[in-house]
Write the structure tokens for this entry.
Amino acid sequence: MNTFTENMECRREAPIGVFDSGIGGLTVAREIMRNLPSEKIVYFGDTARLPYGNKSKETIIRFSRQITRFLIRQDVKAIVIACNTASAFALETIKKEINIPVIGVIDAGAAVAASVTKNHRVGVIGTVGTISSGIHAEHLHRLDPEIEVIGKACPLFVPLAEEGWLDDPVTEAVAHRYLDSLKEKDIDTLILGCTHYPLLRNLIGRVMGSHVRLVNPAYETALELKQLLEDRNMLCSSADTEEFPYRFFVSDLAEEFKKFANSILPYNVEMTRKVDLELLFSTGQSTWC
């Protein structure tokens, strides 16, 4: 086997890096596990600095750069920014700065929404930062200028999902408070524009009604990743999996993260490591424990 072939084999076997401001990106990791079962994953949740939705663009780019540097140290072959806010504010910057493929969670969902809407009225729900960025509208209008985009920030969905109140009367009341105004806008498609929101998919679907198509960007992003790896001949070539094919790192609250991960993933997370990114890149030393 020549050196080029050996290098290609090594790249195929390398893991995929996935990062989020916290735990919501686990819905993306879950879809990657389901749709690319041979791939290994290194996940980083920035639990010490969440939420990203109320921070400036400059801060989110700085955080995303730090996480990207950490993932590259883990020898990942591609990176998925599994956070809508970071995808909106940092994706283009990160893509220009590193030489491995990087995708976010906005493109794929927007493409599906544009293709399935019949009346050209698409709703988007997400964090304050994601909605105020207008990034979904930008992508949708690029695909179809006739689409009208109606955005709605739904910040309470995140803590409710993290609390595990996925089908609770309190969550349903909050959902009506947020979504009833969208129903009045006659949308026929709704993008779940925060990675926590697929956990509330059944409740959101019930409130919106069966005539509204829900678009889950976590699922669509996993399919986009699969296509990207196929196109670049980077799919893992071995059907065999390691004993621990998935590695999880956080910036704080490792045990709480592990508990939540085990409640939603099709995989038993036995260890989550805490990493101090600020210290790691200020000293150049390895600081996880």
